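Input set for joint prediction.
Command: fold jointly, output C-alpha coordinates.
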Amino acid sequence: MEKTILVVDDSATMRQLIGLTLKKVKGCHVVEAQNGVDAVGRLGAGAFDLIITDIKMPEMDGLELVRQVRGPLGHTALPIIIVTTKGEEATRDAGLQAGANAYLTKPLSGVQLVDLVERLTAAPNGAGVGREG
Amino acid sequence: MSISHEEMQRLLSSGEELQEILRKSRDFTQQLMQENERLRYRAVQLEQQVQEAEAGRDRQLLAAVQLENERLKEKAAFLEKRFSEVQQENQDFAQKYVEVAQQNEGLANLYVASFQLHSTLDPEEVMGIVKEIIINLVGSEEFVLFVKDKRTGELSPVTWEGPFAMREGKPAPWDAELLDRVARTGQPFFAPAGERRRGTPLACVPLTIKQEVVGAIAVFKLLVQKPALGAMDMEIMNLLAAHAATAIVSSRLYADADRKLKTIEGFMELLKAR
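C-alpha coordinates >
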Protein backbone atom coordinates (compact mmCIF):
# COMPACT_ATOMS: atom_id res chain seq x y z
CA MET A 1 0.00 0.00 0.00
CA GLU A 2 1.30 3.46 -0.90
CA LYS A 3 2.32 5.60 2.07
CA THR A 4 2.90 9.30 1.67
CA ILE A 5 5.20 10.82 4.26
CA LEU A 6 5.80 14.51 4.79
CA VAL A 7 9.40 15.23 5.81
CA VAL A 8 9.80 18.69 7.33
CA ASP A 9 13.34 19.97 7.94
CA ASP A 10 15.16 23.15 7.00
CA SER A 11 18.30 21.10 6.36
CA ALA A 12 18.46 19.69 2.84
CA THR A 13 21.00 17.21 4.14
CA MET A 14 18.53 15.81 6.66
CA ARG A 15 15.67 15.76 4.16
CA GLN A 16 17.81 13.78 1.76
CA LEU A 17 19.06 11.44 4.49
CA ILE A 18 15.54 10.76 5.78
CA GLY A 19 14.29 10.26 2.21
CA LEU A 20 17.11 7.81 1.56
CA THR A 21 16.39 5.97 4.81
CA LEU A 22 12.68 5.71 4.03
CA LYS A 23 13.43 3.92 0.77
CA LYS A 24 13.63 0.83 2.99
CA VAL A 25 9.94 1.23 3.83
CA LYS A 26 7.86 -0.54 1.19
CA GLY A 27 5.59 1.69 -0.87
CA CYS A 28 6.84 4.85 0.78
CA HIS A 29 6.61 8.15 -1.06
CA VAL A 30 8.28 11.20 0.48
CA VAL A 31 7.17 14.82 0.13
CA GLU A 32 9.58 17.45 1.48
CA ALA A 33 8.85 20.72 3.25
CA GLN A 34 11.45 23.23 4.43
CA ASN A 35 9.65 24.52 7.53
CA GLY A 36 6.35 24.54 9.39
CA VAL A 37 4.66 27.05 7.11
CA ASP A 38 5.66 25.07 4.01
CA ALA A 39 4.39 21.90 5.71
CA VAL A 40 1.00 23.42 6.57
CA GLY A 41 0.60 24.42 2.92
CA ARG A 42 1.41 20.91 1.74
CA LEU A 43 -0.95 19.36 4.31
CA GLY A 44 -3.74 21.46 2.84
CA ALA A 45 -2.94 20.26 -0.66
CA GLY A 46 -2.75 16.51 -0.16
CA ALA A 47 -3.28 13.52 2.08
CA PHE A 48 -0.43 12.17 4.19
CA ASP A 49 0.05 9.02 6.23
CA LEU A 50 2.75 10.38 8.53
CA ILE A 51 4.77 13.51 9.31
CA ILE A 52 8.44 13.55 10.26
CA THR A 53 9.49 16.96 11.51
CA ASP A 54 12.51 18.75 12.93
CA ILE A 55 11.95 21.23 15.78
CA LYS A 56 14.39 24.08 15.10
CA MET A 57 13.24 25.65 11.82
CA PRO A 58 12.70 29.21 10.56
CA GLU A 59 9.23 30.75 10.15
CA MET A 60 7.39 28.00 12.02
CA ASP A 61 9.18 25.49 14.25
CA GLY A 62 8.31 21.83 14.65
CA LEU A 63 6.47 22.18 17.97
CA GLU A 64 4.17 24.82 16.51
CA LEU A 65 3.63 22.65 13.46
CA VAL A 66 2.57 19.73 15.68
CA ARG A 67 0.15 22.01 17.55
CA GLN A 68 -1.28 23.30 14.26
CA VAL A 69 -1.72 19.77 12.92
CA ARG A 70 -3.46 18.54 16.07
CA GLY A 71 -5.48 21.74 16.51
CA PRO A 72 -6.68 24.00 13.68
CA LEU A 73 -5.80 21.56 10.90
CA GLY A 74 -7.80 18.83 12.64
CA HIS A 75 -5.46 15.89 11.92
CA THR A 76 -5.92 14.41 15.36
CA ALA A 77 -4.89 10.88 14.38
CA LEU A 78 -2.14 11.59 11.84
CA PRO A 79 1.08 10.04 13.22
CA ILE A 80 3.89 12.54 13.84
CA ILE A 81 7.55 11.78 14.55
CA ILE A 82 9.85 14.52 15.78
CA VAL A 83 13.49 14.15 14.69
CA THR A 84 15.70 16.77 16.32
CA THR A 85 19.12 17.60 17.72
CA LYS A 86 17.46 18.64 20.98
CA GLY A 87 17.88 15.78 23.40
CA GLU A 88 16.83 17.58 26.57
CA GLU A 89 13.98 16.04 28.57
CA ALA A 90 12.03 19.31 28.64
CA THR A 91 11.96 19.59 24.85
CA ARG A 92 11.13 15.91 24.52
CA ASP A 93 8.20 16.32 26.91
CA ALA A 94 7.06 19.45 25.09
CA GLY A 95 7.09 17.58 21.78
CA LEU A 96 5.11 14.64 23.08
CA GLN A 97 2.67 16.90 24.95
CA ALA A 98 2.11 18.93 21.79
CA GLY A 99 0.83 15.73 20.19
CA ALA A 100 3.77 13.96 18.55
CA ASN A 101 3.64 10.17 18.58
CA ALA A 102 7.38 9.67 18.84
CA TYR A 103 10.54 11.66 19.50
CA LEU A 104 13.89 10.73 17.97
CA THR A 105 17.18 12.54 18.37
CA LYS A 106 19.94 13.21 15.86
CA PRO A 107 22.26 11.75 14.74
CA LEU A 108 19.45 9.70 13.35
CA SER A 109 19.25 5.94 13.70
CA GLY A 110 17.89 4.71 10.37
CA VAL A 111 16.87 1.34 11.82
CA GLN A 112 14.88 3.03 14.56
CA LEU A 113 13.20 5.44 12.13
CA VAL A 114 12.23 2.69 9.67
CA ASP A 115 10.84 0.54 12.48
CA LEU A 116 8.83 3.43 13.85
CA VAL A 117 7.48 4.50 10.45
CA GLU A 118 6.42 0.92 9.65
CA ARG A 119 4.62 0.55 12.98
CA LEU A 120 2.93 3.94 12.86
CA THR A 121 1.76 3.55 9.28
CA ALA A 122 0.67 -0.07 9.78
CA ALA A 123 -1.64 0.77 12.68
CA PRO A 124 -4.83 2.45 11.45
CA ASN A 125 -4.36 6.14 12.24
CA GLY A 126 -1.46 5.29 14.48
CA ALA A 127 -3.78 3.42 16.84
CA GLY A 128 -2.19 0.93 19.14
CA VAL A 129 1.23 2.56 18.95
CA GLY A 130 2.18 4.21 22.19
CA ARG A 131 4.01 7.48 22.45
CA GLU A 132 7.73 6.95 22.30
CA GLY A 133 10.50 9.23 23.26
CA MET B 1 -40.75 -117.80 54.04
CA SER B 2 -38.94 -120.10 51.83
CA ILE B 3 -36.90 -118.96 48.74
CA SER B 4 -36.91 -121.22 45.83
CA HIS B 5 -33.69 -122.40 44.31
CA GLU B 6 -34.25 -120.45 41.12
CA GLU B 7 -34.85 -117.29 43.04
CA MET B 8 -31.74 -117.90 45.06
CA GLN B 9 -29.76 -118.42 41.80
CA ARG B 10 -31.15 -115.16 40.36
CA LEU B 11 -30.38 -113.23 43.51
CA LEU B 12 -26.82 -114.49 43.60
CA SER B 13 -26.39 -113.64 39.96
CA SER B 14 -27.73 -110.14 40.57
CA GLY B 15 -25.36 -109.72 43.53
CA GLU B 16 -22.41 -110.71 41.42
CA GLU B 17 -23.50 -108.29 38.76
CA LEU B 18 -23.79 -105.54 41.36
CA GLN B 19 -20.36 -106.40 42.71
CA GLU B 20 -19.00 -106.22 39.17
CA ILE B 21 -20.60 -102.84 38.65
CA LEU B 22 -19.22 -101.58 41.97
CA ARG B 23 -15.76 -102.84 41.08
CA LYS B 24 -15.89 -101.20 37.70
CA SER B 25 -17.17 -98.02 39.32
CA ARG B 26 -14.25 -98.05 41.77
CA ASP B 27 -11.78 -98.63 38.98
CA PHE B 28 -13.30 -95.78 37.00
CA THR B 29 -13.20 -93.46 39.99
CA GLN B 30 -9.55 -94.30 40.51
CA GLN B 31 -8.85 -93.64 36.88
CA LEU B 32 -10.66 -90.33 37.16
CA MET B 33 -8.66 -89.40 40.22
CA GLN B 34 -5.41 -90.23 38.48
CA GLU B 35 -6.43 -88.28 35.42
CA ASN B 36 -7.42 -85.36 37.61
CA GLU B 37 -4.07 -85.46 39.35
CA ARG B 38 -2.28 -85.55 36.04
CA LEU B 39 -4.29 -82.62 34.72
CA ARG B 40 -3.66 -80.57 37.86
CA TYR B 41 0.03 -81.24 37.54
CA ARG B 42 -0.15 -80.24 33.89
CA ALA B 43 -2.07 -77.08 34.78
CA VAL B 44 0.61 -76.12 37.28
CA GLN B 45 3.26 -76.81 34.68
CA LEU B 46 1.45 -74.64 32.13
CA GLU B 47 0.96 -71.86 34.63
CA GLN B 48 4.68 -71.88 35.33
CA GLN B 49 5.40 -71.84 31.63
CA VAL B 50 3.02 -68.91 31.16
CA GLN B 51 4.65 -67.00 34.01
CA GLU B 52 8.08 -67.67 32.61
CA ALA B 53 6.96 -66.62 29.14
CA GLU B 54 5.45 -63.44 30.51
CA ALA B 55 8.59 -62.65 32.46
CA GLY B 56 10.62 -63.18 29.32
CA ARG B 57 8.35 -60.93 27.32
CA ASP B 58 8.59 -58.25 30.02
CA ARG B 59 12.35 -58.45 30.00
CA GLN B 60 12.35 -58.12 26.20
CA LEU B 61 9.91 -55.26 26.38
CA LEU B 62 11.93 -53.55 29.09
CA ALA B 63 15.09 -53.98 27.06
CA ALA B 64 13.33 -52.54 24.00
CA VAL B 65 11.98 -49.61 26.03
CA GLN B 66 15.41 -48.99 27.52
CA LEU B 67 16.92 -49.06 24.04
CA GLU B 68 14.29 -46.65 22.75
CA ASN B 69 14.86 -44.45 25.78
CA GLU B 70 18.59 -44.35 25.09
CA ARG B 71 17.91 -43.55 21.43
CA LEU B 72 15.51 -40.74 22.38
CA LYS B 73 18.01 -39.40 24.91
CA GLU B 74 20.67 -39.30 22.21
CA LYS B 75 18.22 -37.64 19.85
CA ALA B 76 17.25 -35.09 22.51
CA ALA B 77 20.92 -34.36 23.20
CA PHE B 78 21.54 -33.97 19.48
CA LEU B 79 18.52 -31.67 19.12
CA GLU B 80 19.58 -29.64 22.15
CA LYS B 81 23.06 -29.28 20.69
CA ARG B 82 21.61 -28.33 17.30
CA PHE B 83 19.22 -25.89 18.96
CA SER B 84 22.13 -24.24 20.75
CA GLU B 85 24.02 -24.07 17.47
CA VAL B 86 21.03 -22.57 15.66
CA GLN B 87 20.49 -20.14 18.53
CA GLN B 88 24.14 -19.12 18.29
CA GLU B 89 23.81 -18.81 14.50
CA ASN B 90 20.72 -16.64 14.98
CA GLN B 91 22.60 -14.42 17.40
CA ASP B 92 25.48 -14.20 14.94
CA PHE B 93 23.07 -13.34 12.13
CA ALA B 94 21.32 -10.75 14.30
CA GLN B 95 24.70 -9.25 15.17
CA LYS B 96 25.70 -9.29 11.50
CA TYR B 97 22.37 -7.68 10.59
CA VAL B 98 22.98 -4.89 13.10
CA GLU B 99 26.50 -4.39 11.76
CA VAL B 100 25.27 -4.34 8.15
CA ALA B 101 22.47 -1.94 9.09
CA GLN B 102 25.01 0.33 10.82
CA GLN B 103 27.31 0.15 7.80
CA ASN B 104 24.36 0.97 5.53
CA GLU B 105 23.50 3.92 7.71
CA GLY B 106 27.10 5.02 7.63
CA LEU B 107 27.21 4.72 3.86
CA ALA B 108 23.94 6.64 3.56
CA ASN B 109 25.42 9.37 5.76
CA LEU B 110 28.60 9.48 3.70
CA TYR B 111 26.63 9.52 0.43
CA VAL B 112 24.34 12.32 1.60
CA ALA B 113 27.24 14.34 3.02
CA SER B 114 29.22 13.97 -0.21
CA PHE B 115 26.17 14.70 -2.38
CA GLN B 116 25.22 17.81 -0.46
CA LEU B 117 28.77 19.19 -0.29
CA HIS B 118 29.01 19.17 -4.07
CA SER B 119 25.44 20.30 -4.72
CA THR B 120 26.26 24.01 -4.83
CA LEU B 121 29.02 26.43 -5.82
CA ASP B 122 27.89 29.15 -3.42
CA PRO B 123 30.53 29.43 -0.66
CA GLU B 124 27.94 30.44 1.96
CA GLU B 125 25.77 27.44 1.12
CA VAL B 126 28.79 25.15 1.25
CA MET B 127 29.62 26.47 4.74
CA GLY B 128 25.99 25.93 5.74
CA ILE B 129 26.10 22.36 4.47
CA VAL B 130 29.32 21.65 6.36
CA LYS B 131 27.62 22.96 9.50
CA GLU B 132 24.53 20.83 8.83
CA ILE B 133 26.68 17.74 8.41
CA ILE B 134 28.65 18.37 11.60
CA ILE B 135 25.48 19.04 13.59
CA ASN B 136 23.14 16.44 12.13
CA LEU B 137 25.40 13.61 11.07
CA VAL B 138 28.29 13.88 13.53
CA GLY B 139 26.10 15.18 16.36
CA SER B 140 28.24 18.11 17.45
CA GLU B 141 26.84 21.04 19.42
CA GLU B 142 29.95 23.22 19.45
CA PHE B 143 32.53 23.39 16.69
CA VAL B 144 34.58 25.78 14.55
CA LEU B 145 35.36 25.59 10.84
CA PHE B 146 38.70 27.16 9.89
CA VAL B 147 39.79 28.00 6.35
CA LYS B 148 43.29 29.04 5.32
CA ASP B 149 43.59 32.71 4.53
CA LYS B 150 45.01 33.12 1.03
CA ARG B 151 47.08 36.18 1.94
CA THR B 152 48.44 35.26 5.36
CA GLY B 153 48.37 31.48 4.96
CA GLU B 154 46.90 31.17 8.47
CA LEU B 155 43.79 29.25 9.43
CA SER B 156 40.96 31.63 10.25
CA PRO B 157 37.54 30.75 11.68
CA VAL B 158 34.85 31.17 9.02
CA THR B 159 31.85 29.62 10.70
CA TRP B 160 31.09 28.12 14.08
CA GLU B 161 28.38 26.85 16.39
CA GLY B 162 28.07 27.07 20.16
CA PRO B 163 29.40 29.42 22.81
CA PHE B 164 32.55 27.54 23.80
CA ALA B 165 34.15 27.41 20.37
CA MET B 166 34.19 31.17 19.89
CA ARG B 167 34.42 33.81 22.59
CA GLU B 168 33.73 37.41 21.71
CA GLY B 169 34.23 36.64 18.05
CA LYS B 170 37.62 35.05 18.58
CA PRO B 171 38.48 31.37 18.72
CA ALA B 172 38.98 29.98 22.20
CA PRO B 173 42.62 30.02 23.38
CA TRP B 174 43.03 26.29 22.95
CA ASP B 175 43.67 26.39 19.27
CA ALA B 176 47.20 27.65 18.70
CA GLU B 177 49.27 24.60 19.43
CA LEU B 178 46.89 21.86 18.36
CA LEU B 179 45.59 23.69 15.31
CA ASP B 180 49.15 24.44 14.19
CA ARG B 181 50.08 20.80 14.60
CA VAL B 182 47.06 19.60 12.62
CA ALA B 183 47.69 22.21 9.90
CA ARG B 184 51.39 21.37 9.74
CA THR B 185 51.14 17.60 9.76
CA GLY B 186 47.77 17.15 8.03
CA GLN B 187 47.00 14.44 10.58
CA PRO B 188 43.58 14.44 12.29
CA PHE B 189 43.40 14.56 16.07
CA PHE B 190 40.83 12.56 18.03
CA ALA B 191 40.97 12.92 21.81
CA PRO B 192 41.39 9.49 23.43
CA ALA B 193 38.28 8.45 25.36
CA GLY B 194 38.44 9.67 28.94
CA GLU B 195 41.69 11.56 28.42
CA ARG B 196 40.35 14.84 27.21
CA ARG B 197 41.94 17.87 28.84
CA ARG B 198 39.80 20.89 29.61
CA GLY B 199 39.79 23.29 26.70
CA THR B 200 41.02 20.86 24.08
CA PRO B 201 38.69 19.77 21.31
CA LEU B 202 37.24 16.28 21.00
CA ALA B 203 38.47 16.20 17.44
CA CYS B 204 40.37 18.42 15.05
CA VAL B 205 40.38 17.32 11.43
CA PRO B 206 42.35 19.02 8.65
CA LEU B 207 40.63 19.85 5.37
CA THR B 208 43.05 18.78 2.68
CA ILE B 209 43.28 18.86 -1.08
CA LYS B 210 45.92 16.35 -2.09
CA GLN B 211 48.54 16.99 0.61
CA GLU B 212 47.78 20.66 1.16
CA VAL B 213 45.84 21.70 4.26
CA VAL B 214 43.26 24.33 3.32
CA GLY B 215 41.27 24.35 6.56
CA ALA B 216 40.28 22.46 9.68
CA ILE B 217 37.26 21.49 11.71
CA ALA B 218 37.50 21.45 15.48
CA VAL B 219 34.72 19.76 17.45
CA PHE B 220 34.40 20.82 21.09
CA LYS B 221 31.16 19.42 22.36
CA LEU B 222 28.65 16.78 21.31
CA LEU B 223 24.87 16.88 21.61
CA VAL B 224 23.60 15.83 25.04
CA GLN B 225 22.28 12.53 23.71
CA LYS B 226 25.60 11.59 22.10
CA PRO B 227 28.10 10.12 24.56
CA ALA B 228 31.19 9.96 22.33
CA LEU B 229 32.48 10.06 18.79
CA GLY B 230 32.27 6.64 17.17
CA ALA B 231 34.07 5.02 14.29
CA MET B 232 31.41 6.21 11.84
CA ASP B 233 31.73 9.80 13.09
CA MET B 234 35.43 9.64 12.40
CA GLU B 235 34.67 8.30 8.91
CA ILE B 236 32.31 11.21 8.27
CA MET B 237 34.86 13.68 9.58
CA ASN B 238 37.57 12.15 7.42
CA LEU B 239 35.21 12.35 4.44
CA LEU B 240 34.58 15.99 5.32
CA ALA B 241 38.33 16.48 5.40
CA ALA B 242 38.52 15.62 1.72
CA HIS B 243 35.14 16.66 0.30
CA ALA B 244 34.55 19.82 2.31
CA ALA B 245 37.99 21.06 1.35
CA THR B 246 37.26 20.58 -2.36
CA ALA B 247 33.76 22.01 -2.04
CA ILE B 248 34.91 25.09 -0.08
CA VAL B 249 37.89 25.85 -2.30
CA SER B 250 36.03 25.23 -5.57
CA SER B 251 33.06 27.33 -4.45
CA ARG B 252 35.41 30.16 -3.45
CA LEU B 253 37.24 29.90 -6.76
CA TYR B 254 33.92 29.89 -8.58
CA ALA B 255 32.73 32.91 -6.60
CA ASP B 256 36.00 34.74 -7.34
CA ALA B 257 35.80 33.83 -11.02
CA ASP B 258 32.14 34.85 -11.14
CA ARG B 259 32.91 38.17 -9.46
CA LYS B 260 35.78 38.83 -11.88
CA LEU B 261 33.61 37.84 -14.83
CA LYS B 262 30.89 40.23 -13.70
CA THR B 263 33.50 42.99 -13.28
CA ILE B 264 34.82 42.32 -16.78
CA GLU B 265 31.26 42.18 -18.17
CA GLY B 266 30.50 45.47 -16.46
CA PHE B 267 33.67 46.99 -17.83
CA MET B 268 32.79 45.72 -21.33
CA GLU B 269 29.29 47.18 -21.03
CA LEU B 270 30.85 50.47 -19.99
CA LEU B 271 33.18 50.42 -22.98
CA LYS B 272 30.29 49.60 -25.32
CA ALA B 273 28.27 52.46 -23.89
CA ARG B 274 31.10 54.87 -24.65
